């Protein structure tokens, strides 16, 4: 959680820090603050969003500073608990992302020694530890302080003595942006795109000393690290709204390009036999959290249908506690950020068990890429809205590519079958655009959902996970309680909850489940629940049993989750918009979950 930025250079640090915090706000937005070295250490922080901080902030003058936007874990959202935190001298400031697990013991000791605490947070112990160890060298103080700390962290600290900042990372992201006569450090490259596209990713256990002229990175043994910078292909425009009302809507409409880019080059590698993996596996385990878990559930159907390989799906938060079976499946870790704490822990556990690990992630240089045997990068571009949209469809693309690749390796798919499905995938951006063209129809159709307290999403087979994703999206951004069900399970209990006040969104595409889905929808209609059916264009049978319908184009049934996903995203978006919800920043949620 939480977004960090630090700056050293000739510009007004306040402007750079505020700009970066606005781009990091998807990581947390319950409080924010800035500390700048100028005439002493100037600090301003408050509860609320960056826009409030920016509007209320006095002019802070200086060329060295740190900023932070918070997603609360330890200590409720408040001005008191907002970062940065100062030491007792008022000369040192610290910002932190992560959790200090032994903070209570450290806090007791430090208080006994005379340190004064002003917050309820775990972070504040860090600045007092630094104060204890500071003897004129801030980097040395940081290294010594961290020897006492248990937990996870991305830390940036500044002191009024000098023009440098120091930083450290353990299991939480940090990236350095290399400028000309200026340097930046942040939680994400999006915070620095206005100033540089050259990035150096900080690795676990490393510390950083950064000033306007240089950046020095040290490993855990204190040895200097030399690492070539990466060139970031994202632009500032990629991370802006571009005229859309919300980032989420912009990102929904960017999905044709996200799918195209994720396929670009990958299909050629697939057809040449050089994609992702180079050996056959007798089983596959997909491990993920949240939206990525739903994409993985689709992946199970895809892999089993195409490659005939037994596939299981497991929540990353549960995987490390499950007993090993002695088998060594291909273990696929799916995480859009590449920094999800539970998924990273699962990757380490999978390697400990001797499994070949493959990561699917959207962020080049992210931690997961260094924890696995091989990586497939989706190419969705930066996603700012907290509710995942284009990164989810890009993950779906990865599942199709993986399914085909396993089908090739296991000789379950012939060359002609591979080429036919690859051709269908190439046409997917066009089908997505057709769904997006129907956005006004969706806007009108969701009126039946807006007043509801509860909504059911129903699907079968490969589109059951898609309806789980639809329910999740509606919950995340509209705050309506929604549940996804395999439609055949209604009669095993959930039918008791249906009445005229409980709308149902039902996916009914022309596949082997079509007749059964029509029967399930009729069961729902008999309980007087309003029904919004999602079917293939021109379906008069669905229109006869549903109160209203929206349609997707006819595609190969195995690919139907892609256009159906776009449709449920639009349903969630327009419902939330009509309810006046803060769509890009839903309460209690953050984009990247970097704590357990």
Report on the structure:
- The protein has 596 residues and is an alpha/beta fold.
- The strands form four sheets. An eight-stranded antiparallel sheet has the order 3-2-4-1-10-9-11-15, with helices on one face. It has a seven-stranded antiparallel sheet with strand order 5-6-7-8-12-13-14.
- 56% of the residues are buried.
- The longest helix has 20 residues, at 390-409.
- The protein is built from 19 helices and 25 strands.
- Helix 7 (255-263) runs parallel beside helix 12, helix 9 (290-307) runs parallel beside helix 12 and helix 15 packs across helix 19.
- Among the domains are: 3-238, Glutamine Phosphoribosylpyrophosphate, subunit 1, domain 1 (4-Layer Sandwich), CATH 3.60.20.10; 437-585, Glucose-6-phosphate isomerase like protein, domain 1 (Rossmann fold, 3-Layer(aba) Sandwich), CATH 3.40.50.
The value of Rg in angstroms is 25 Å
- For the record, the CATH architecture of the domain at 3-238 stands as 4-Layer Sandwich
State the helicity in percent bands: 25-40%
The CATH first-level class of the domain at 3-238 comes to Alpha Beta
Number of helices: 19
Instruction: Pick out the low-confidence regions.
Output: none
* Strand order in the largest sheet: 3-2-4-1-10-9-11-15
Query: Looking at the structure, what is the overall shape?
Result: globular
Count the E strands: 25
Q: What distance separates the N and C termini?
A: 10 Å
The biggest sheet, with number of strands, parallel, antiparallel or mixed sense and barrel status, is:
8 strands, antiparallel
Protein structure class: alpha/beta
């Amino acid at each position: 959680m939480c977004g960090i930025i630090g700056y050293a250079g000739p510009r007004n640090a306040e402007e750079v820090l505020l700009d970066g915090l606005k781009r990091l706000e998807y990581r947390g937005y319950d409080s924010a603050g800035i500390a700048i070295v100028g005439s002493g250490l100037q600090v301003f922080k408050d509860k609320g969003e960056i826009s409030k901080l920016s509007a209320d902030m006095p002019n802070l003058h200086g060329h060295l500073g740190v900023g932070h936007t918070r997603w609360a874990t330890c200590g409720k959202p408040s001005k008191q608990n907002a970062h940065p935190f100062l030491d007792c001298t008022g000369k040192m400031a610290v910002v932190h992302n992560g959790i200090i697990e032994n903070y209570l013991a450290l806090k007791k000791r430090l208080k006994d020694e005379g340190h004064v605490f002003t917050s309820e947070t775990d972070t504040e112990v860090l600045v007092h530890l630094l104060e204890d160890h500071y003897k004129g060298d801030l980097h040395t103080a940081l290294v010594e302080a961290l020897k006492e700390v248990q937990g996870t962290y991305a830390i940036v600290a500044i002191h009024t003595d000098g023009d440098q900042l120091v930083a450290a990372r353990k299991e939480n992201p940090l990236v350095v942006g290399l400028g000309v006569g200026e340097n930046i450090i942040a939680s994400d490259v999006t915070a620095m795109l206005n100033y540089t596209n050259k990035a150096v990713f900080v690795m676990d256990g490393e510390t950083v000393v950064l000033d306007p002229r240089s950046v020095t990175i040290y490993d855990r043994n204190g040895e200097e690290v030399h690492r070539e910078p990466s060139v970031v292909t994202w632009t500032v425009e990629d991370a802006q709204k571009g005229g859309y009302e919300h980032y989420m809507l912009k990102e929904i409409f960017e999905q044709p390009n996200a799918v195209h880019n994720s396929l670009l080059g990958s299909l050629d590698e697939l057809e040449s036999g050089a994609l992702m993996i180079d050996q056959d596996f007798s089983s596959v385990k997909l491990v993920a959290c949240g939206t990525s878990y739903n994409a993985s559930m689709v992946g199970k159907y895809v892999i089993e249908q195409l490659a005939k390989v037994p596939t299981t799906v497991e929540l990353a938060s549960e995987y490390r506690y499950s007993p090993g079976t002695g088998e060594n499946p291909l273990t696929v870790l799916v995480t859009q950020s590449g920094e999800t704490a539970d998924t990273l822990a699962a990757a380490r556990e999978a390697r400990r068990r001797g499994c070949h690990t493959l990561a699917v992630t959207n962020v080049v240089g992210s931690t997961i890429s260094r924890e696995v045997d091989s990586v497939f990068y989706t190419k969705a571009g930066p996603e700012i809205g907290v509710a995942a949209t284009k990164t989810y469809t890009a993950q779906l693309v990865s599942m199709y590519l993986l399914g085909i690749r396993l089908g090739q390796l296991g000789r379950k798919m012939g060359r002609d079958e591979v080429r036919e499905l690859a051709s269908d995938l190439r046409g997917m951006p066009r089908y997505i655009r057709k769904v997006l063209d129907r956005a006004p129809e969706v806007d009108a159709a969701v009126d039946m959902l807006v007043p509801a307290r509860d909504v059911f999403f129903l699907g079968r087979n490969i589109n059951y996970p898609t309806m789980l994703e639809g329910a999740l999206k509606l919950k995340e951004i509209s705050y309506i309680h929604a549940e996804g069900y395999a439609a055949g399970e209604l009669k095993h209990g959930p039918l008791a909850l249906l009445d005229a006040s409980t709308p149902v969104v039902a996916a009914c595409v022309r596949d082997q489940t079509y007749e059964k889905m029509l029967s399930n929808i009729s069961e729902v209609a008999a309980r007087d629940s309003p029904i919004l059916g999602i079917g293939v264009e021109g379906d008069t049978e669905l229109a006869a049993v549903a109160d209203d319908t929206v349609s997707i184009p006819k595609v190969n049934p195995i690919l139907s989750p892609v256009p159906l996903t776009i449709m449920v995203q639009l349903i969630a978006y327009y419902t939330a918009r009509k309810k006046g919800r803060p769509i890009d920043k839903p309460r209690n949620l953050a984009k990247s979950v970097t704590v357990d």
